[in-house]
Design a protein that fits this description.
Blueprint (H helix, E strand, L loop, with lengths): L2 H12 L3 H16 L1 H6 L5 H15 L6 H18 L5 H17 L2 H22 L9 H86 L4 H26 L19 H10 L4 E6 L7 H21 L6 E7 L3 E8 L7 H4 L7 H11 L3 E6 L6 E8 L5
Parallel strand pairs: 1-2
Antiparallel strand pairs: 2-3, 3-5, 4-5
């Protein structure tokens, strides 16, 4: 186990137990430094030293939870100790060093600056107070060297605390960045799920609406023809069964993307090349459809081909549902250098289709077609013909540069 992992484990353990660990540290320091003075009764003013040491140890327990308050109490006790006592207190010395580090690492901005100033003053003051009586320290040069050493040591302790402060800020910044990235990933996953649900809903609408429209038309036609032409009724039933099986297969392929407990069933995505088969199904449903294609045909992306296919499918489904008996439809595909232009025109009634254009969003009717076209950078216009005899749908889909 490397050192970095040990440090990480310790940080995870210590972070929620800050007050407890600092209190244990304060108790340990008090046990080592304050109690021996009580037992040995060393020198004058022992009760002052014990009281100030105990106050510093109590304040030390809050060095990270209340760093400014703890540092201020320790600094005040240290200066009182320098003034009233003639003998150096180990408890005050140790807690002053730890308090200076804690103020630099955990304190506020003003507390950090004040800790540096007070620490230097305290170091110089303690040098003059507790070390100037030694025989070898009678010279000014010796006292200056001692004060400079303690001031430099104080600055070093303060700088160590500042390094710790910088490291904590860096870790906090990394944690915040990780949190934001996790939130961004969650939002992207949610948006992807919403987009996938919308796509599936749109595909289900196109498959179900088209299939049921053809099935209903065939069922009505077969019912009327059953008495006079049993063969026509049988052919209608065959068409219904074929369309039902096709729709079931498409639904299984579509919903297969939602399964995670087994292999997915994948079917080829319909495209512009499958339009003739679609027209054959629509003609079998009782709607005469003419088809024309102009311009040099070329390969297009799967998305563009699927969009073209679904637009034609939905338009012819609307004709079957709304145009009425005796209506004809005309599908025109024109290949241009950078786009594919699709026009579907019928000569039936146009008054009942208008409501479908303003249907709620979510893949329904003409709104679904327009969403498909815009999703691939195209446009779609739809509306009644000027003479109110029929409806016209026109879509323009970009295909890129000519091959």
């Amino acid at each position: 186990m490397n050192t970095q992992r040990i440090i990480e484990r310790w940080n995870r353990f210590a972070e929620p137990r800050t007050l407890l660990l600092d209190a244990l540290l304060a108790i340990a320091i008090a046990t080592v430094t304050v109690l021996p003075e009580l037992w040995e009764q060393m020198g004058p003013n022992v009760w002052w030293r014990m009281l100030l040491g105990a106050v510093c140890c109590v304040a030390l327990a809050f060095r990270r939870t209340r760093p400014d308050l703890a540092g201020s109490v320790i600094a005040l006790a240290a200066f009182v100790h320098i003034v009233v006592d003639e003998q150096l207190s180990p408890a005050v010395t140790v807690t002053a060093v730890i308090g200076l580090y804690s103020m630099a690492a955990y304190g506020s901005t003003w507390g950090t600056r004040a800790a540096l100033v007070l620490g230097v003053l305290g170091g110089v003051g303690s040098s003059g107070r507790f070390y100037s009586e030694a025989p070898e320290s009678r010279s000014f040069e010796y006292n200056a060297i001692g004060a400079s050493f303690l001031a430099a040591l104080t600055v070093g302790i303060w700088a160590t605390g500042m390094l710790r402060r910088s490291r904590m800020r860096e870790v906090s910044s990394l944690r915040e960045r990780a949190r934001l990235l996790e939130l961004e990933r969650a939002q992207e996953a949610e948006l992807a799920a919403i987009g996938e649900r919308t796509r599936i809903a749109r595909e289900m609408h196109d498959i179900i609406a088209h299939t049921l429209t053809v099935v209903i038309a065939q069922a009505d036609g077969g019912r009327y023809a059953a008495e006079q032409d049993p063969g026509a009724a049988a052919r209608a039933l065959e068409t219904i069964a074929e369309n039902g099986r096709q729709a079931l297969a498409d639904m299984r392929s579509l919903l297969g993307v939602l399964r995670e407990d087994g292999p997915r069933e994948v079917r080829a995505v319909p495209g512009i090349a499958d339009v003739p088969d679609l027209l054959a199904v629509v003609r079998a449903g009782g709607l005469p459809v003419t088809f024309s294609s102009s311009g040099p045909e070329r390969a297009v992306s799967a998305g563009c081909g699927l969009t073209a296919y679904r637009i034609i499918q939905e338009s012819l489904t609307n004709v079957l549902k709304h145009a009425g008996l005796g209506a004809d439809a005309d599908v025109r595909v024109r290949w241009e250098p950078a786009e594919l232009r699709i026009t579907i025109v019928d000569d039936g009634r146009a008054d009942t289709v208008e409501a479908d254009w303003v249907a709620p969003a979510g893949g329904k009717g003409l709104l679904g077609m327009r969403e498909r076209a815009e999703l691939h950078g195209g446009t779609l216009t739809a509306g009644a013909r000027p003479d109110r005899r029929g409806y016209r749908v026109e879509a323009i889909l970009p295909t890129g540069e000519a091959l």
